[in-house]
Fold each of these.
Amino acid sequence: MKKSLLPLLAIALAAVGCQNYDDQFDDLNGQLAALSSQVAGLAQVQNDLSSLSSTVASLQGSIKSTVDAALGESLTEIQAAIDSLTEASDNIATGDDVDNITDSLEGVEQD
Protein backbone atom coordinates (compact mmCIF):
# COMPACT_ATOMS: atom_id res chain seq x y z
CA MET A 1 0.00 0.00 0.00
CA LYS A 2 2.90 2.32 0.68
CA LYS A 3 4.16 1.74 -2.82
CA SER A 4 0.87 2.68 -4.44
CA LEU A 5 0.58 5.91 -2.47
CA LEU A 6 4.09 7.03 -3.21
CA PRO A 7 3.61 7.58 -6.99
CA LEU A 8 0.25 9.21 -6.35
CA LEU A 9 1.86 11.57 -3.82
CA ALA A 10 4.68 12.41 -6.26
CA ILE A 11 2.16 13.29 -9.01
CA ALA A 12 0.16 15.46 -6.60
CA LEU A 13 3.26 17.32 -5.44
CA ALA A 14 4.42 17.85 -9.03
CA ALA A 15 1.05 19.23 -10.07
CA VAL A 16 0.84 21.57 -7.07
CA GLY A 17 4.49 22.64 -7.46
CA CYS A 18 4.12 23.38 -11.19
CA GLN A 19 1.07 25.48 -10.60
CA ASN A 20 2.94 27.52 -8.02
CA TYR A 21 5.88 28.03 -10.40
CA ASP A 22 3.52 29.01 -13.19
CA ASP A 23 2.01 31.70 -10.96
CA GLN A 24 5.46 32.91 -9.97
CA PHE A 25 6.58 33.02 -13.61
CA ASP A 26 3.44 34.94 -14.54
CA ASP A 27 4.12 37.40 -11.72
CA LEU A 28 7.75 37.80 -12.80
CA ASN A 29 6.67 38.34 -16.41
CA GLY A 30 4.26 41.04 -15.24
CA GLN A 31 7.00 42.71 -13.24
CA LEU A 32 9.35 42.54 -16.23
CA ALA A 33 6.71 44.13 -18.45
CA ALA A 34 6.20 46.93 -15.90
CA LEU A 35 9.95 47.51 -15.65
CA SER A 36 10.26 47.51 -19.42
CA SER A 37 7.61 50.22 -19.74
CA GLN A 38 9.34 52.25 -17.00
CA VAL A 39 12.68 51.96 -18.80
CA ALA A 40 11.04 53.06 -22.04
CA GLY A 41 9.55 56.04 -20.19
CA LEU A 42 12.93 56.91 -18.72
CA ALA A 43 14.52 56.72 -22.15
CA GLN A 44 11.89 59.17 -23.42
CA VAL A 45 12.62 61.50 -20.48
CA GLN A 46 16.32 61.31 -21.30
CA ASN A 47 15.62 62.21 -24.94
CA ASP A 48 13.39 65.08 -23.83
CA LEU A 49 16.10 66.38 -21.49
CA SER A 50 18.66 66.24 -24.27
CA SER A 51 16.33 68.17 -26.56
CA LEU A 52 15.62 70.70 -23.81
CA SER A 53 19.33 71.15 -23.20
CA SER A 54 19.84 71.97 -26.88
CA THR A 55 16.95 74.43 -26.80
CA VAL A 56 18.34 76.17 -23.71
CA ALA A 57 21.78 76.45 -25.30
CA SER A 58 20.23 77.94 -28.43
CA LEU A 59 18.23 80.45 -26.38
CA GLN A 60 21.31 81.42 -24.40
CA GLY A 61 23.20 82.13 -27.61
CA SER A 62 20.32 84.14 -29.00
CA ILE A 63 19.89 86.17 -25.82
CA LYS A 64 23.62 86.79 -25.58
CA SER A 65 23.84 88.12 -29.12
CA THR A 66 20.76 90.32 -28.60
CA VAL A 67 22.10 91.71 -25.33
CA ASP A 68 25.56 92.24 -26.81
CA ALA A 69 24.08 94.13 -29.76
CA ALA A 70 21.91 96.30 -27.49
CA LEU A 71 24.83 97.01 -25.17
CA GLY A 72 27.07 97.83 -28.11
CA GLU A 73 24.56 100.36 -29.44
CA SER A 74 24.04 101.86 -25.97
CA LEU A 75 27.77 102.12 -25.34
CA THR A 76 28.22 103.86 -28.69
CA GLU A 77 25.49 106.36 -27.77
CA ILE A 78 27.02 106.91 -24.33
CA GLN A 79 30.45 107.50 -25.85
CA ALA A 80 28.96 110.02 -28.29
CA ALA A 81 27.30 111.86 -25.38
CA ILE A 82 30.60 111.88 -23.46
CA ASP A 83 32.42 113.23 -26.51
CA SER A 84 29.79 115.94 -26.93
CA LEU A 85 30.01 116.94 -23.26
CA THR A 86 33.80 116.97 -23.40
CA GLU A 87 33.73 119.19 -26.46
CA ALA A 88 31.20 121.49 -24.80
CA SER A 89 33.28 121.66 -21.63
CA ASP A 90 36.28 122.80 -23.68
CA ASN A 91 34.32 125.96 -24.53
CA ILE A 92 33.40 126.76 -20.92
CA ALA A 93 35.22 129.69 -19.36
CA THR A 94 37.61 128.92 -16.54
CA GLY A 95 38.11 130.93 -13.36
CA ASP A 96 41.09 132.68 -14.97
CA ASP A 97 38.92 133.63 -17.94
CA VAL A 98 36.29 135.11 -15.62
CA ASP A 99 38.99 137.05 -13.74
CA ASN A 100 40.35 138.41 -17.04
CA ILE A 101 36.84 139.41 -18.13
CA THR A 102 36.23 141.10 -14.78
CA ASP A 103 39.50 142.97 -15.04
CA SER A 104 38.65 144.06 -18.58
CA LEU A 105 35.21 145.26 -17.47
CA GLU A 106 36.74 147.22 -14.62
CA GLY A 107 39.08 148.82 -17.12
CA VAL A 108 36.17 149.69 -19.40
CA GLU A 109 34.20 151.13 -16.48
CA GLN A 110 37.09 153.35 -15.52
CA ASP A 111 37.42 154.66 -19.06
Amino acid sequence: DLIVATELYRFVAPFPDDSKSRELVLQLLEHTPAPFSREQFQPGHITCTGLVLHPFDDSFVLVYHRRLDRWLLPGGHVEEQDGEIWDTARREVLEETGARLAPQDSPILVGIDVHGIPPGRREPFHLHHDLIFALQSTSAEVAPTEEVRKVVWCSPNDWERFDLPDSVRSCARRALQIRQRQTR
Protein backbone atom coordinates (compact mmCIF):
# COMPACT_ATOMS: atom_id res chain seq x y z
CA ASP A 1 0.00 0.00 0.00
CA LEU A 2 2.86 2.39 0.78
CA ILE A 3 4.40 2.00 -2.68
CA VAL A 4 1.05 2.70 -4.31
CA ALA A 5 0.45 5.77 -2.13
CA THR A 6 3.96 7.05 -2.93
CA GLU A 7 3.30 6.65 -6.67
CA LEU A 8 0.00 8.51 -6.31
CA TYR A 9 1.60 11.44 -4.50
CA ARG A 10 4.36 11.68 -7.12
CA PHE A 11 1.73 11.55 -9.85
CA VAL A 12 -0.36 14.53 -8.78
CA ALA A 13 2.41 17.07 -9.28
CA PRO A 14 2.70 16.66 -13.07
CA PHE A 15 -1.00 15.82 -13.66
CA PRO A 16 -3.26 17.82 -11.29
CA ASP A 17 -6.33 17.20 -13.48
CA ASP A 18 -6.56 13.66 -12.09
CA SER A 19 -6.68 14.75 -8.46
CA LYS A 20 -10.24 13.48 -7.92
CA SER A 21 -9.39 9.92 -9.03
CA ARG A 22 -6.15 10.10 -7.02
CA GLU A 23 -8.09 11.02 -3.87
CA LEU A 24 -10.54 8.15 -4.44
CA VAL A 25 -7.68 5.66 -4.71
CA LEU A 26 -5.99 7.06 -1.60
CA GLN A 27 -9.29 6.76 0.32
CA LEU A 28 -9.68 3.18 -0.90
CA LEU A 29 -6.17 2.36 0.37
CA GLU A 30 -6.85 3.98 3.73
CA HIS A 31 -10.39 2.77 4.45
CA THR A 32 -10.87 -0.67 2.90
CA PRO A 33 -9.46 -3.93 4.25
CA ALA A 34 -8.48 -5.45 0.88
CA PRO A 35 -8.06 -2.73 -1.78
CA PHE A 36 -6.30 -5.12 -4.20
CA SER A 37 -8.83 -7.97 -3.92
CA ARG A 38 -11.20 -8.53 -6.82
CA GLU A 39 -13.74 -9.57 -4.15
CA GLN A 40 -13.73 -6.02 -2.70
CA PHE A 41 -16.83 -4.51 -4.35
CA GLN A 42 -17.72 -1.68 -1.97
CA PRO A 43 -16.47 0.72 -3.17
CA GLY A 44 -14.32 -1.38 -5.52
CA HIS A 45 -10.70 -2.42 -5.98
CA ILE A 46 -7.44 -1.38 -7.60
CA THR A 47 -6.66 -2.57 -11.11
CA CYS A 48 -3.67 -1.84 -13.35
CA THR A 49 -3.36 -1.07 -17.02
CA GLY A 50 -0.46 -0.83 -19.45
CA LEU A 51 -0.21 1.87 -22.07
CA VAL A 52 2.26 0.12 -24.37
CA LEU A 53 4.16 2.47 -26.66
CA HIS A 54 5.22 1.34 -30.12
CA PRO A 55 9.02 1.14 -30.53
CA PHE A 56 9.15 3.33 -33.66
CA ASP A 57 6.11 5.60 -33.91
CA ASP A 58 3.50 7.45 -31.86
CA SER A 59 1.06 4.59 -31.41
CA PHE A 60 0.05 2.33 -28.54
CA VAL A 61 -1.67 -1.02 -28.08
CA LEU A 62 -5.44 -1.43 -27.80
CA VAL A 63 -7.38 -4.60 -27.10
CA TYR A 64 -11.03 -5.25 -27.84
CA HIS A 65 -12.81 -5.87 -24.53
CA ARG A 66 -15.60 -8.36 -25.24
CA ARG A 67 -17.59 -7.85 -22.06
CA LEU A 68 -17.57 -4.05 -22.31
CA ASP A 69 -17.83 -4.20 -26.13
CA ARG A 70 -15.20 -1.53 -26.81
CA TRP A 71 -11.53 -0.86 -27.49
CA LEU A 72 -9.45 -0.24 -24.35
CA LEU A 73 -5.93 -0.51 -23.02
CA PRO A 74 -4.83 -3.95 -21.77
CA GLY A 75 -5.09 -4.39 -18.03
CA GLY A 76 -6.72 -6.21 -15.17
CA HIS A 77 -6.76 -7.33 -11.57
CA VAL A 78 -3.87 -7.46 -9.13
CA GLU A 79 -2.68 -11.01 -8.39
CA GLU A 80 -0.72 -12.28 -5.40
CA GLN A 81 2.37 -13.07 -7.49
CA ASP A 82 2.68 -9.45 -8.70
CA GLY A 83 5.72 -8.13 -6.82
CA GLU A 84 5.21 -4.42 -7.48
CA ILE A 85 2.01 -2.67 -8.48
CA TRP A 86 3.27 -2.03 -12.04
CA ASP A 87 4.00 -5.76 -12.41
CA THR A 88 0.24 -6.21 -12.69
CA ALA A 89 0.17 -3.96 -15.76
CA ARG A 90 3.16 -5.77 -17.31
CA ARG A 91 1.65 -9.23 -16.66
CA GLU A 92 -1.72 -8.24 -18.08
CA VAL A 93 -0.13 -6.78 -21.22
CA LEU A 94 1.83 -9.99 -21.79
CA GLU A 95 -1.22 -12.19 -21.17
CA GLU A 96 -3.47 -10.16 -23.46
CA THR A 97 -1.17 -9.09 -26.31
CA GLY A 98 2.08 -11.05 -26.25
CA ALA A 99 3.95 -7.73 -26.60
CA ARG A 100 7.68 -7.76 -25.95
CA LEU A 101 8.31 -5.19 -23.24
CA ALA A 102 11.53 -3.37 -22.47
CA PRO A 103 12.78 -3.92 -18.93
CA GLN A 104 11.87 -0.99 -16.66
CA ASP A 105 12.62 -0.68 -12.96
CA SER A 106 9.56 1.44 -12.26
CA PRO A 107 7.34 2.44 -15.18
CA ILE A 108 5.85 5.94 -15.10
CA LEU A 109 2.29 6.30 -13.84
CA VAL A 110 0.54 8.24 -16.63
CA GLY A 111 -3.04 8.03 -15.43
CA ILE A 112 -5.50 7.24 -12.69
CA ASP A 113 -9.04 6.45 -13.78
CA VAL A 114 -11.83 5.46 -11.40
CA HIS A 115 -14.70 4.06 -13.46
CA GLY A 116 -17.77 1.88 -13.04
CA ILE A 117 -17.95 -1.76 -14.09
CA PRO A 118 -21.42 -3.06 -14.91
CA PRO A 119 -22.77 -6.10 -13.07
CA GLY A 120 -22.03 -9.49 -14.56
CA ARG A 121 -20.30 -12.81 -13.96
CA ARG A 122 -21.67 -13.01 -10.43
CA GLU A 123 -20.27 -9.55 -9.64
CA PRO A 124 -22.32 -6.53 -8.63
CA PHE A 125 -21.73 -3.08 -10.07
CA HIS A 126 -18.43 -1.82 -8.64
CA LEU A 127 -15.59 0.60 -9.29
CA HIS A 128 -12.19 -0.10 -10.78
CA HIS A 129 -9.59 2.24 -9.33
CA ASP A 130 -7.27 1.89 -12.31
CA LEU A 131 -3.58 2.83 -12.29
CA ILE A 132 -2.22 3.28 -15.82
CA PHE A 133 1.51 2.76 -16.43
CA ALA A 134 3.48 3.64 -19.58
CA LEU A 135 5.37 0.62 -20.91
CA GLN A 136 7.72 0.44 -23.88
CA SER A 137 7.51 -2.30 -26.49
CA THR A 138 10.71 -3.53 -28.12
CA SER A 139 8.90 -4.97 -31.13
CA ALA A 140 5.93 -4.08 -33.30
CA GLU A 141 4.71 -7.66 -32.98
CA VAL A 142 1.51 -8.13 -31.00
CA ALA A 143 -1.13 -10.81 -31.36
CA PRO A 144 -4.47 -11.84 -29.91
CA THR A 145 -4.32 -14.35 -27.08
CA GLU A 146 -6.80 -16.60 -25.29
CA GLU A 147 -7.90 -13.59 -23.23
CA VAL A 148 -8.32 -11.10 -26.09
CA ARG A 149 -9.41 -11.74 -29.66
CA LYS A 150 -8.36 -8.41 -31.23
CA VAL A 151 -5.19 -6.37 -30.72
CA VAL A 152 -4.18 -3.28 -32.71
CA TRP A 153 -1.71 -0.40 -32.66
CA CYS A 154 -3.54 2.90 -32.38
CA SER A 155 -2.13 6.29 -33.39
CA PRO A 156 -3.67 9.66 -32.43
CA ASN A 157 -5.28 9.77 -35.90
CA ASP A 158 -7.25 6.60 -34.99
CA TRP A 159 -8.74 7.84 -31.71
CA GLU A 160 -12.15 8.71 -33.19
CA ARG A 161 -12.38 5.47 -35.16
CA PHE A 162 -11.79 3.42 -31.99
CA ASP A 163 -14.06 5.74 -29.94
CA LEU A 164 -11.46 6.03 -27.18
CA PRO A 165 -12.54 7.41 -23.82
CA ASP A 166 -11.05 10.77 -22.79
CA SER A 167 -9.10 9.07 -20.00
CA VAL A 168 -7.24 6.87 -22.52
CA ARG A 169 -6.55 9.86 -24.77
CA SER A 170 -5.13 11.86 -21.84
CA CYS A 171 -2.87 9.00 -20.76
CA ALA A 172 -1.65 8.48 -24.32
CA ARG A 173 -0.83 12.19 -24.72
CA ARG A 174 1.10 12.13 -21.45
CA ALA A 175 3.04 8.97 -22.29
CA LEU A 176 3.95 10.23 -25.75
CA GLN A 177 5.05 13.63 -24.38
CA ILE A 178 7.19 11.96 -21.72
CA ARG A 179 8.80 9.72 -24.32
CA GLN A 180 9.52 12.70 -26.59
CA ARG A 181 11.22 14.54 -23.71
CA GLN A 182 13.28 11.47 -22.83
CA THR A 183 14.52 10.99 -26.41
CA ARG A 184 15.67 14.59 -26.91
